Amino acid sequence: MTSGTGAKLTIQVHQEDRLSVKFHLTDPQAIQNLLSHLQPTKLFSQHHLALGGAHSLTVFPCARVVQVDFFGDNLPEFPHYRGVHTIKEITQAQMQERFKPENYAHVVPGETVTVYTEIELMDGKRHILEVNMEAPMRQPQEQNVLLQQILSGGGLHITRSDGGLTVLNPVQIVCITFYPGTGIMPPNAWIAEKA
């Protein structure tokens, strides 16, 4: 965040009807206060999201919000799920160029690896993610618990390709595809390849 009069934070709230609303903060103290209290993994755990200023108050039921974007200078780093170091948005072309299934034949648990995830949301948006993480050593039941944590959590945050921050609402996720596959299927998984 720049100091003085140049400080600015833009927040864009995306709704499931594909509409979005932007909000601007220019007061450095208000920006600092918001960012110091922001907990992306709990953003959608509350009943509603309220944003207001001197002239208006806008309230969104969290169940109807697909994602919230934050744009500004020097946004803080927020911790991810255990074992995940970074989650960055990339393009489909970048994923096709970087993802090589043969590179995952001999991954050792605990080793740092880069994996890819495609998330499809209720409003039709798709996010392609590059995830830098420790290779897990999971049993099928543990895999199921991880999926439940992601899908029922209070928010999944990613670094945008333009440097901003996006917090996805897990209840608005329609589908998640992991590349490579986990190798360990949850107990209730059907064995089939994506066409």
Structure in words:
The protein contains 3 helices and 11 strands; from the N terminus they run ββαββββαββαβββ. The chain has 2 domains: 4-72, Roll (SH3 type barrels), CATH 2.30.30; 84-179, no CATH class. The protein is an alpha+beta fold. It is 15% helix and 37% strand. The strands form 3 sheets. The chain has a 5-stranded antiparallel β-sheet. The model has no long low-confidence stretch (mean pLDDT 87).
Tag the structure with descriptive keywords:
SH3 type barrels, 15% helix, 5-stranded antiparallel beta sheet, 195 residues, 4-stranded antiparallel beta sheet, alpha+beta, 3 helices
How is this structure best summarized?
With 195 residues, the protein is an alpha+beta fold.
Radius of gyration: 18 Å
Strand content: 35-45%
Number of strands: 11
Mean pLDDT, to the nearest integer, reads 87
Q: Write down the oligomeric state.
A: single chain
Distance between the termini: 44 Å
N-to-C SSE string, H for helix and E for strand: EEHEEEEHEEHEEE
- Number of DSSP helical runs: 3
Q: Which class of secondary structure composition applies to the elements?
A: alpha+beta
Low-confidence stretches: none
